[in-house]
Design a protein that fits this description.
Its EC number is 3.6.1.-. This protein is α+β, with helices and mostly antiparallel strands. It is built from 9 helices and 16 strands. The structure holds adenosine-3'-5'-diphosphate and magnesium ion (2 copies).
């Protein structure tokens, strides 16, 4: 039977291809400025206080079995993506304590912007976001896709262990005091971190403002630690943040290609968006033994892959995101705190779709309406 192919007037589509149209002078991305930070404690309680972030101190490769302590891993209970409520609470706190008004066109987690930024080269990871327009601001949260839900429900013991490796690497690479205070390898604080119980409820979030072209953004982002800091705690910590990552060691050309094509784009996007200058990669073998450490500068990543066959291009990503944001702000017009738009990317080479959902999945909680209202 022939299908009715009349387009649904309530669905808007932003084509991703051809990518050539984004290959031009880069849209300007302002250096992000941190406006506040907050943390979650071991019980996942949120605190907006002046407790310091942890400091980088290189992992000892001899302690590098990343599976150690897995049986004691305290893992955050989570069923799918987090709401943006804690981020909104932190912004309200700024408004109440400093009287600053919140100026932004789009507010979300950095992880959501990362997924959007990488979309031109995304081949196999569909995403879906919910967005509510309220008082001229678009608030965006993540929805779990069917693919992500199946991955979560069918995750194997090995894939759960591999998630632990990432957190264990963070534990083995950080300490509670600046590295300058550690005078010897026998320092008890190094022994302590080696034996510490990994609890991924604990997290530090930096909130920054920036803009891409004419789009003013506010984003909250998990940050891992600080590097090259002597006391006192830096007033503008962003250029002292570093991102920690684990990756499989690269044994051959194929491994290098996969790393550069699929991992480096995400590493770059994640750190670039909040202005983190350096990434430390812990390379591990298939059994989770840490083999080497490598420091890379975020801004040098695009050059590392430039001109290589079947790679990705950072300027294309930025121009894509800029034009997508402009377009999104043009189609998200119904200002209704009780409703939302679904923004979805289902298949590579297809478009991004936006559909309005009346009285469904509002992104803001009731407590946010008055502080973010007119
Ligand atoms: P790796 O990135 O080294 O694998 P982040 O690097 O963003 O700070 O995240 C820290 C760790 O959290 C990751 O370490 C990984 O172990 C886990 N993690 C983060 N996002 C994840 C995801 N989408 N799926 C599975 N694990 C994830
Ligand atoms: Mg992190
Ligand atoms: Mg990390």
């Amino acid at each position: 039977m022939e299908q009715n192919i009349r387009p649904d007037p309530n669905i808007y589509k932003f084509p991703i291809h051809p990518l050539k149209r984004f290959n031009k002078k880069s849209a300007e991305y302002k250096q992000p400025v941190e406006i506040t930070s907050f943390r979650y404690d071991e019980n996942r309680q949120m605190h907006i206080d002046d407790r310091e972030l942890r400091y980088y101190y290189p992992a000892n490769l001899e302690d590098g079995n990343l599976s150690v302590g897995y049986e004691n891993f305290i893992q955050r209970e989570s069923e799918g993506p987090e709401t943006i409520h804690p981020l909104l609470d932190a912004l309200i706190h700024i408004k109440e304590t400093r009287g600053d008004s919140i100026k932004a066109d789009i507010i979300s987690w950095r992880g959501i912007f990362t997924k959007m930024l990488c979309t031109p080269y995304n081949r196999n990871e569909p995403w879906e976001f919910g967005a509510t327009l309220y008082n001229n601001k678009i608030f965006i949260e993540e929805h779990e896709t069917e693919q992500a839900r199946l991955n979560r429900e069918r995750s194997t013991p090995k894939s759960k262990l591999m998630v632990y490796w990432g957190y264990k690497f963070e534990a083995l690479s950080t300490i509670g005091v600046p590295a300058t205070e550690i005078k010897s390898q026998d320092d008890p604080r190094l022994l302590e971190r080696k034996n510490s119980i990994v609890n991924n409820n604990i997290q530090y979030c930096s909130v920054s403002k920036t803009s891409l072209g004419k789009n003013r953004l506010i984003m909250g982002a998990d940050v891992d630690c600080l590097i090259d800091v002597k006391p006192p705690y830096p007033e503008n910590p962003i250029n002292k943040y570093i991102e920690l990552k684990t990756s499989k060691i690269l044994k051959n050309e194929r491994d290098t290609f996969v790393f550069e094509r699929y991992k480096l784009i995400k590493f770059w996007a994640q750190s670039f968006l909040i202005g983190i200058p350096k990434i430390i990669i812990g390379f591990r073998d298939d059994d989770g033994n840490l083999c080497s450490l490598k420091e890379i500068k975020t801004l040098e990543i695009p050059r590392m892959v430039r001109g290589k066959d079947k790679m990705w291009d950072a300027v294309t990503c930025l121009n894509f995101l800029n034009e997508f944001f402009e377009w999104l702000r043009g189609v998200i017009k119904i200002e209704d705190a009780n409703s939302s738009y679904i923004i979805s990317f289902k298949e590579p080479y297809q478009e991004i779709e936006v559909a309005f959902c009346h009285n469904k999945n509002p992104v803001l909680a009731d407590r946010h309406l008055k502080p973010f209202g007119k």
